[in-house]
Amino acid sequence: MRTLNDSPPGQAATPEDLLVAVAAGDRSAYTELFDTLGPRTLGLARRVVGSRARSEEVFQEAWLQVWRTASSYDPARGSASAWITTLVHRRAVDTVRHDVAEHRRDERFESARAPAFDSVSDDVVARDERTRVRACLETLTTRQREAIDRAYFGGLTYREVATSLAVNPATIKTRIRDGLERLRTCMGGVIDG
């Protein structure tokens, strides 16, 4: 196995040589390896994680792992660059998975903690609306109310309402239109015709 001292004079040590030296505890080799591969692996962490701060955490943890586990690197199985890049990528992917799972847990927890639907206030609002609609229906003429009742509550078409009341369809359309306009005004403009 080559060491830093085995490199030819004037030639920079390869990442493989540096990683082997790191495995032996050489801090200067670690610094040189970090300077060589650090920027590329930080970029990888940022692309995978997305968040700048979170990717810097991943980057630091991965390079700490490089220091601690350099002895498990086997030059016969691949380049030092690939080995380190794989460590950074795996840590980044694990971080993303962890963050997504944590976010989902938080969402489930929050939805479980959410107070129950307030049916009392909805019942009060619905009762108030029914009262207002009834009061506004009382402002219609008998003919308008009868035409609207058959069309909207009876589900009849204009022609069917006209036939059932023995009135011209155009007259039924006018009664319904005028009645809806009166209801809209009474309800404060909240009814769509």
Q: What report would you give on this structure?
A:
The model has no long low-confidence stretch (mean pLDDT 86). This protein has 8 helices and no strands. The chain has 193 residues and is mainly alpha-helical. Helices cover 73% and strands 0% of the residues.
- Count of helical stretches: 8
Question: Largest sheet at a glance?
Answer: none
Strand portion, in percent? under 5%
- The secondary-structure element order is HHHHHHHH
| Number of DSSP strand runs | 0
Provide the residue-averaged pLDDT: 86
Low-confidence stretches: none
Q: Could you tell me the radius of gyration in angstroms? A: 38 Å
Taking the alpha carbons of the first and last residues, their distance comes to 87 Å
Q: Provide the structure class.
A: mainly alpha
Q: Which outline best applies?
A: rod-shaped
- Helical amount among residues, as a percent range? over 70%
